[in-house]
Write a structure and sequence with these properties.
Length: 166
């Protein structure tokens, strides 16, 4: 209906897919180091146990990476699996979905769901952990900057005090 850009939704889907794809490997240097160390130790991250080893290694590298982070990663994976459009026909013709028996509807929706893959889980782990490492680096840098300023102020206060006494 009305003016719209033909195939714009496909372009958005492609951009989103490319964004997720870039997280197949970590982006932040600290996380890249953890990822490489874990892969060297256990091989390709292709089982739940190996993913757990990776998550534990991230937590050991950054203690702020907690169970809450894992819950957020799990939620993001579930959202990606359920990220689909209901067919327009279902809304245009209520008999196709709305008037179906309740027991049939979950099966119809399940057919639209994307399977959860190891690749998807690794991407979400990396996406979340990259963000945490980036934040930690900025947070640490800000704290160091603040401490340097405090030391400089202390030195200036000492200098002024000694000048006033002398």
């Amino acid at each position: 209906m009305g003016a719209h850009e033909l195939f714009a939704a496909q372009e958005i889907k492609r951009a989103v897919a490319e964004s997720f794809e870039k997280h197949s490997e970590p982006q932040e240097a600290g996380l890249r180091h953890v990822f490489a160390e874990v892969e060297a130790r256990v091989g390709e991250l292709d089982t739940i146990a190996k993913l757990g080893t990776y998550l534990k290694a991230i937590q050991e590298a950054d203690a702020r990476f907690t169970g809450r982070a894992i819950k957020n990663i799990t939620d993001a994976v579930k959202v990606r699996a359920m990220d689909f459009e209901l067919p327009d026909e279902w809304m245009a013709e209520p008999d196709l979905f709305l008037f179906q028996p309740y027991d049939r509807k979950p099966d119809m929706i399940a057919e639209l769901r994307r399977p959860i893959t190891v690749e998807m889980v690794v991407q979400e782990i990396n996406r979340y952990a990259d963000s945490e490492f980036r934040y930690a680096d900025k947070s640490d840098e800000a704290a160091i900057f603040g401490m340097v300023r405090d030391i400089q102020r202390t030195e200036e206060a000492k200098r002024r005090y000694l000048e006033g006494k002398g």
